[in-house]
Amino acid sequence: MTKEVKPYNEAGSKKEQVAEMFDNISERYDLLNHLLSLSIDKGWRKKVVKMASEGEPKLILDVATGTADLAIALAKAHPDKITGIDISAGMLSVGRDKVAKKNLSSLITLEQADSEDLPFPDTTFDAITVAFGVRNFENLEKGLAEMLRVLKPGGRLLVLEFSQPQSFPFKQIYNFYFKFMLPTIGKLVSKDSRAYTYLPESVQAFPYGDAFSEIMTKVGYENGRRIPVTFGIATIYEGKK
Questions:
Q1: What are residue 35's phi and psi, to 5 degrees?
Q2: Is this prediction's pTM over 0.90?
Q3: Angle at alpha carbon of residue 72, lines to 66 and 76, rounded to 5°
Q4: C-beta neighbour count of 122 within 10 angstroms
Q5: Domain spans in the chain, listed from the N-terminal domain onward
Q6: Is residue 86 within 8 Å of 66, Cβ to Cβ?
Q7: What class has domain 29-164+207-240?
Q8: CA distance 32 to 49
Q9: Can you give the pLDDT at residue 2?
Q10: In this structure, what DSSP letter does residue 119 have?
């Protein structure tokens, strides 16, 4: 079992602390996200959208939607409806403004909800996506099981999450950047001393690669596959119901 990593070293559940952290950094999250990733994350999301489009989904759920970057990108999959959920009211507020500016409010609905207790009936969605969110789940298996529950038979889950490069020199560069540069820049811009220290800690603790694929299979996903992107900095995981 992996060690539970929380954003703040204080009492309270991981879920409560994650919500507080994202509320704290919501106004500067997009700036930092693209700055710290050198905007490479945009290409990763495009790949997720392309994969999601293959099944021509009509109803899509974007879990841990944050400021709705992936939900907005999924409009290119031409679904009938996209629903984004997140536990952070601050992130959702920023996301709703972005959706409105893109004139996508009739297509995309953002709701505050818990990824481990989804407020939807069984077999509702054709596809579910999560970008950089499963790492923050308090109970990973429960969150994955909830998403499986609301997927239609034949529906697909696509998870984009950070992993850890293993080849030289990308492993060494990645570790130096994540452990030293990212927390320093994040602290200066976000004014939250823990948010961007928590990020590398949570990535280190996350069961990536084979370990995460095995958890998906254990929960009940079938035909699993994973696609490393940008030298293994992140991975896209796919599972079907």
A1: -65, -50
A2: yes
A3: 145
A4: 9
A5: 29-164+207-240
A6: yes
A7: alpha beta
A8: 22
A9: 53
A10: -
